[in-house]
Design a protein that fits this description.
The structure is a single chain. Helix 4 links the parallel strand 4 and strand 5. The protein has 19 helices and 18 strands. The protein is an alpha/beta fold. The radius of gyration is 32 Å and the shape is elongated. Bound molecules: adenosine-5'-triphosphate and magnesium ion. Magnesium ion binds next to helix 7.
């Protein structure tokens, strides 16, 4: 599932009983009665099918497409009430109108208790039957309309296979949509398990590059010595073991997207090489005499605070600005509590279908526990918790006892020591001047606005010209590399 391309879901087919003639199934062992019912209903425009016994009736309902069953109670092979019980266990189950014998009010009551929509007593008037049929079908189409609406609401909480109801995720969906035609580099940040890789894939598979490769590379997982050839390839004879030419991922991904995961782990030497590739749009494999053009979009991700690495010099500023043309930050799950239940329900459905179990929903007690927990492992942890619960649960409902102990956090705001801290403490410790502090803040706001300078200027209370001038000054002071003003932005260029 991890490698499945995100796809955008389209609305499913219309539910039964709207926009087409409803299908009514008659279950009646008496042939004359069957014929009479069929004629009366067909005259009213319904599609009618008829069977002579309870077993055949159940089989037909299981095949689907039946909107309403009209059934006799007394049948030789299977009692109409037993049939009713079985039909009601089918999902989605059709409405049932039961025909009872005159004077057997007990049977009628039992039928309704078992889930019959209505009953009519023999002998009956055809108009009375038609009226009941209409009522049943109206109610049913209303109900499927409600289900459709609910489904639609849920759909809007997803973008392909990314679930998100929170404002942060909704605006990210909008951003991914806006970026579909763009080849701008994107930096995805967020703590472990917040969904960075999923977002990277979504950026690719929702872009015009979707038919070309998406090639992920985890910079932390490959030894430094191999990383360069992994990225740029080599020519035969470039070093002792190079017996054939080898294309690096920049060539492999030509026309597509490279996902550089854990970018903060890239060594200074490779940072310099990567920067050159991004600036020039060409690579030179090890041992090659000349460079070759490549057309690759780079999406990079990290769970580190890259800007901190900038100050310490561990990450090149010019490369940072090249990668950070668009910035997508995925907040910790506890900071987007609106996403917890939609995500949990999404994982419930997928785990249940993977496990082949009929687990349908969370009990209120379980929902409460899921909402109160702090989720240090973010979405990945939630996914694991739900998968485990589905594996263990018996019955259709996941209760709090089916979950591992999830210690509630009382205060959903960031715990002490994080964002609630004195915002100037770090600046003080680093001994920043006022100008440096201003610069850092301005860059943060530009990044938070995805590089859109108009919005950044609004947020900063500056006019656009002033913001541009400042960004140019920073770029110039940054040593002529790709400063913020030259790194471009979607909104303004
Ligand atoms: N919004 C989401 N909707 C659906 N599934 C999600 C969402 N976010 C994360 N996931 C799922 O959670 C798991 C972790 O996501 P992912 O691997 O993308 O996280 P990550 O940020 O790259 O983590 P790490 O930093 O540890 O590599 C994956 O199985 C992913 O499919
Ligand atoms: Mg990852």
């Amino acid at each position: 599932m991890a490698d499945a391309a995100p796809t955008i879901s389209e609305p499913g087919p219309e539910p039964a009983a709207s926009g087409r003639a409803a299908t009514i199934l008659i279950v009646e062992d008496d042939a004359a009665m069957r014929m009479m019912l069929r004629e009366a209903l067909e005259e009213d425009g319904y599609t009618v099918e008829a069977v002579g016994g309870g077993r055949a009736g159940i089989e037909r309902v299981k095949q689907g497409g039946v909107d309403l069953v009209i059934s006799d109670v007394k049948m030789p092979d299977l009692d109409g009430l037993d049939m009713l019980r079985e039909i009601k266990a089918v999902t989605p189950s059709p409405h049932v109108i039961t025909i009872t014998a005159f004077g057997s009010i007990d049977t009628a009551i039992r039928a309704v208790k078992l889930g019959a929509f209505d009953y009519i007593t023999k002998p009956f008037d055809v108009d009375q039957l038609i009226l009941s049929v209409q009522k049943a079908l109206d109610e049913r189409s209303l109900r499927s309309e409600l289900a459709r609406l609910r489904d639609e609401v849920q759909r809007s909480y997803r973008w392909g296979n990314i679930i998100g109801k929170s404002a942060a995720m909704q605006s990210m969906f909008a951003l991914i949509r806006r970026l579909s035609g763009s080849s701008a580099s994107v930096l995805v940040t967020g703590a472990s398990g917040t969904g960075k890789e999923l977002v990277a894939k979504s950026l690719h598979f929702n872009s015009t590059r979707r038919d070309r490769p998406f090639v992920p590379l985890n910079c932390a997982a490959i030894p430094e010595t191999l990383l360069e050839s992994e990225l740029f390839g080599y020519k035969r004879g470039a070093f002792t073991d190079a017996r054939t030419d080898r294309a690096g991922i920049f060539v492999e991904a030509d026309g597509g997207t490279i996902f550089l995961d854990e970018i903060a782990e890239l060594s200074p030497a490779l940072q310099a090489k990567l920067l050159r590739v991004l600036q020039e749009g060409e690579i030179r494999p090890l041992g090659a005499a000349r460079s070759q053009k490549v057309d690759v979009r780079v999406v990079a991700a990290t769970n580190k605070d890259l800007e901190e690495n900038l100050t310490s010099g561990a990450f090149r500023q010019d490369l940072f600005y090249r990668l950070n043309v668009i910035h997508i930050h995925l907040p910790a799950l506890r900071d987007r509590a609106d996403d917890i239940l939609p995500l949990a329900e999404h994982f419930l459905v997928s785990s249940a279908s993977k496990a082949g179990k009929d687990v349908r929903a969370f009990h209120e007690s379980a929902k409460k526990a899921l909402l109160a927990y702090g989720w240090p492992g973010n979405v990945r942890e939630l996914e694991n918790v739900v998968e485990r619960a589905v594996a263990l649960v018996e019955g259709p409902l996941v209760r709090v006892d089916d979950l591992p102990p999830l210690a509630p956090v009382r205060d959903r705001r960031p715990p002490e020591g994080e964002a609630e801290q004195d915002p100037f403490a770090a600046a003080l410790a680093r001994g920043l001047t006022l100008a440096e502090l201003e610069r850092d803040y301005i860059m943060k706001v530009v990044a938070a606005e995805g590089g859109n300078k108009t919005r950044a200027a609004q947020r900063l209370g500056l006019d656009r010209k002033t913001l541009y001038r400042k960004l140019e000054e920073y770029a110039a002071a940054g040593g002529g590399g790709g400063g913020p003003a030259t790194s471009g932005s979607e909104g303004d260029r």
